[in-house]
Amino acid sequence: MIDLLKLALRNIFRHRGRTGMTLASVLFGVVALILAGGFIEDTIVETGEAMIRSSTGHVQVARKGYWEFGSQKPEQYLIEDVATLRKQMEAAPDVEDVMFRIGFSGLLGNGRTDWSIVGEGVEPEREARLASYITVVAGRQMTDKDAFGMMIGAGVAKALKLGAGDTASLLVSTAGGATNLLEFEIVGVFQTFSKDYDARAVRIALPAAQELLATPGAHLGVMLLKETAATDAAASALRAVLPGGDFAIKTWVDLNEFYNQTVTLYEQQFGFLTVIIMVMLLLSVSNTVNIGIFERVSEFGTMMAIGNRSNRVFGLVVTESLCLGIVGSLAGVVIGTLLALGISAVGIPMPPPPNADQGYISKVLVVPEVLLLAFSTGVMAALLASLLPARKVSRMHIADALRQGV
Amino acid sequence: MRFLVLINIILRNLLRQRRRSLIAIFSVGFGIAALVVASGFIEWMFTDFREATIESQYAHVQVTRPGYQENGRADPMRYLLPEDAQAGALKGLENTRSWGPRLNFTGLLSRGDTTVSFVGEGFNPATDLTGDRSLRMVSGRKLGATDQAQVMLGKGLATQLGAKPGDAVVVLVDNPSSGLNAIDATVAGVFESVSKAYDDSAVLVHIEAARKLLKVPGAHSWLVYLNDTDDTAAAAADLRGRLDAKQYEVRTWDQLAEFYARAVDLFRQQLDVVRFIVIAIILLGIGNTMMMSVMERTGEIGTLMALGIRQSAVMRQFVAEGALIGILGGLGGLALAFLIALGVDALQIEMPPPPSLTRGYIAKVLLTPGIVAEALAIAVATTVLASLYPAWKASRMVIVDAIRQNK
After folding, report:
1. Rounded-to-integer distance, Cα B338 and Cα B303, Å
2. Is A71's CB within 8 Å of B116's CB?
3. Mean pLDDT over all residues of chain B?
4. I need a labelling partner for B46 at 20 to 30 A (CA). Which of A152, A384, B1, B378 fits?
5. Among candidates A193, A202, A140, which has minimal Cα distance to A165?
6. Chain A residue closest to B163 (CA)?
7. What pLDDT shows up at residue B1?
8. Percent of chain A with pLDDT over 70
9. What is the distance between the alpha carbons of residues A386 and A5, in angstroms, rounded to a whole number?
10. How far is CA B58 from CA A197, B62, B123, B259, in A?
11. H or E element: which one contains B74?
12. Is B136 helix (H, G, I), strand (E, B) or coil?
């Protein structure tokens, strides 16, 4: 075996040009897979973080049924004992902060016309800690002192021609069907990753919202974790503590259909790309391997003439190809990783996604699974490519083989 | 004649190394097929969403008061168009299927104790939103031409309100022109457009009901539907000629459908990546094959040149071999892509809805002349490019050394 390996390696180094070509083919395919896979992984991770850090947080708690029916009868799904729930949520592992929100729908008026909005009463300073993906495009961030301040989405600001410092009237219907009208001062205009959200979103301070809706409670408890990977652990810890009949718990993945659609789309695309690269790799490697083998038919004839068995010839050819595959794939993994790190350090400026206004800087993540997939694809391509030609040369008549190329 | 001889020699050379030529042609063919299928699939997706976007949201051309698209939402009553009778310019337009007025407003919608805010549009059910790909009814029916006391709700809004067809609702608006005004209505149906954000807040009512509610005549926009999307630019230009630019502004769907335009850019970029990979792999693979071919035939090349064949002729010979591989591979790839397209059609594969859209779609591969031409051009250009260096190498051989290789 060792003997075969040594022979195979010698053969590889004897034909520098051809070895170089095969290595280049394997290497290119492996690098392409690593870069494509890493880029797509980054897009997925980035999309997830954008969701978490601009609105949903990592884990949300609400009264059971709120997500399904809350918009019809919001007053029936209020969390009354906010302080106790806050303590329970803060006790979960890896929690950085916990904040409460109350939701409402209403009309925001600029004196000339109304705009239909989806509003939230929030705890401004805690939200500011969560919202690293929200940019304040005009005015300033709301603070806890802004009792009657309001932040509006960029789309709302554009539709109503409102800016920081303007006043706007907010009309909502309260529990029991009465309507309530309050004046607010716009302190800032924000922009998230989602244009659809910005076109409707309005945020006011929690106490003001409670006054507007004539209630002391809140609808949602939102948990911000130290890292996204801890989401499932925190959610299950919370499930263990909270009475199942009263509360429902959702993670950011459950809450964001957009994220799931994005993941599906990108996984399809990566699947397609992987198949293309694999087949192209297989074809291009098999061509090189083929040429290499048929050039050396007389050499294999000689080997068999001096008593080597045909399965030894078969083994030699396959081993050579396998070595090339392994070396090429290893080099591909190293170069791919280095390139990925290099590209990430520079960053690829991306145009805004279809539903956003802001472009972003994309990276190429180094993902262990993708490295493994790329490596095994390279090795498998080289191995598969050699099987048929190896079989063919090892089955040749010695005399015919010897006569070739003379 | 000389050309035929050249072709003859090339074909013989390719046939001499049958297996190698086949693999080379096959790898070009596969790469081209992959590229064509990817382009065709994306092309189909665009066509499908383009038509759905046009039919369910923007129509082909919109006529408004100048500045309405930018500033109209903040002060809608300043941008009212005159009554329908004055829309004469729209009627004489060629290739027009229909047109309809739209009146936009916002307000509150109540059903029992539940109240939600909405974005409403008054439209003429007889001529507007009538296309096959326009709104998809989730339940109930579309508004009829005389349904002035009925409304249609977007799917998301209907869920928020818990409303279904047949339910009684109250539509309330508060507007400087109308004051506080409300009408009672019945839900006729629940619809789904292409955009989820739209469906979450949309209410559609009869244009006459909207006019009554706002106490204004006229409309905010006139929507023009054409028979063929390709005529959009011509129709818009025609309209601009007929309407006074100081009073009217004409916009086409592609200026309005920002989401669509951005999605197109995104997918174009991704297609560029596939194209780059296919080109690179063909370059590498064919370059490799041609190099081998040159090395192997060193003795033969020496003999040729010793017989007086010029360097340029040797070079031409190898480049032409590469080009032929490209042509055969390209044609084979197209044939393969065509078969795949038929297969995809036959399988009726359902694709999930793309991010922030509501509808999935049936996968199809649309092979346009542009895609076919591009694929063939790439096949020939890359193979010729890949053979340049080997061919140059072959033509620069020193005759004596080359001949000596002949055993």
Report:
1. 44
2. yes
3. 86
4. B378
5. A140
6. A72
7. 61
8. 99
9. 16
10. 20, 7, 12, 12
11. none
12. strand
pLDDT digits (tens, 9 = 90+) for B366-388: 899 999 999 999 999 999 999 99
Query: Where does residue B401 fall: left (phi above 0), alpha (psi -120 to 50 degrees), or beta otherwise?
Result: alpha
Phi, psi dihedral angles at B146 (to 5 degrees): -115, 10
Q: Is pLDDT at B404 greater than 90 in this prediction? A: no
Q: Encode pLDDT of A56-82 as tens digits.
A: 899 999 998 888 887 777 888 888 888
Q: 3-class SS at B80?
A: coil
Residues of A in contact with B407 (CB under 8 A): 405-406
CA distance A221 to chain B (A): 21
SS3 category, B201: coil
b/e sequence A326-345, b meaning 16+ C-beta within 10 Å: bbbbbbbbeebbebbeebbe
Distance CA A203, CA A99 (A): 14
Q: What percent of chain A has pLDDT over 90?
A: 28
Cβ-Cβ contacts under 8 Å, B161 against chain A: 71-72
Q: Characterize the bridge pairing of strands B136-140 and B150-154.
A: unpaired
Task: Tell me: pLDDT of B406 over 70.
Answer: no
Backbone angles phi, psi at A111, to 5 degrees: 100, -25
Contact A25, A289 (CB under 8 A): no
Pairwise CA distance, residues B372 & A299, whole Å: 45
Q: Assess whether pLDDT exceeds 60 at residue A406.
A: no
State the Cα angle at A117 between A114 and A123, rounded to 5°.
130
| H helices, E strands: number in chain B | 14, 12
CA distance A252 to A264: 16
Sort residue A214 into left (φ over 0), alpha (ψ -120 to 50) or beta.
left
Say if residue A185 is exposed, middle or buried (CB neighbours under 10 Å; 0-12, 13-18, 19+): middle
CA-CA distance, A40 to A46, in Å (whole number)?
Answer: 10
Assess contact for A372 and A329: CB atoms under 8 A: no
CB atoms within 10 A of CB B343: 11
Q: Which tokens sit at B216?
A: 């204004």
Instruction: State the sign of the Cα–Cα–Cα–Cα dihedral B58, B161, A202, A361.
Output: negative
As for the ipTM of the complex, it is 0.71
**Interstrand relation of A167-173 and A95-109 (parallel, antiparallel or unpaired):** antiparallel
| CB contact at 8 A, B257 and B116 | no
Q: Which of B110, B260, B272, B288 has the most A C-beta neighbours within 10 Å, making it the best mutation to test the interface with A?
A: B288
- Cβ <8 Å between A284 and B76: no
B292–A291: do the CB atoms touch at under 8 Å? yes
In A218-376, the DSSP E strands lie at 220-225, 247-251, 348-350, 360-362
Dist CA A274 CA A268 (whole Å): 10
Residues whose CB falls within 8 Å of the CB of residue B56, separated by 6 or more in sequence, listed in order = B129, B133, B134, B135, B193, B194
Report the candidate in B272, B26, B384 with the shortest Cα–Cα distance to residue A279.
B26
Structure tokens at B21: 């030529």
How would you classify residue B166: left for phi > 0, otherwise alpha for psi between -120 and 50, otherwise beta?
left
> Taking CA A252 as the corner, what is the angle to CA A249 and CA A257, rounded to the nearest 5 degrees?
110
In this structure, are residues B90 and B128 in contact, taking their beta carbons and an 8 Å threshold? no
Long-range contacts of A292-295 (CB under 8 A, 24+ apart): A292/A15, A292/A18, A292/A22, A292/A320, A293/A317, A293/A386, A293/A389, A293/A390, A293/A393, A294/A389, A294/A393, A294/B19, A295/A405, A295/B292, A295/B296
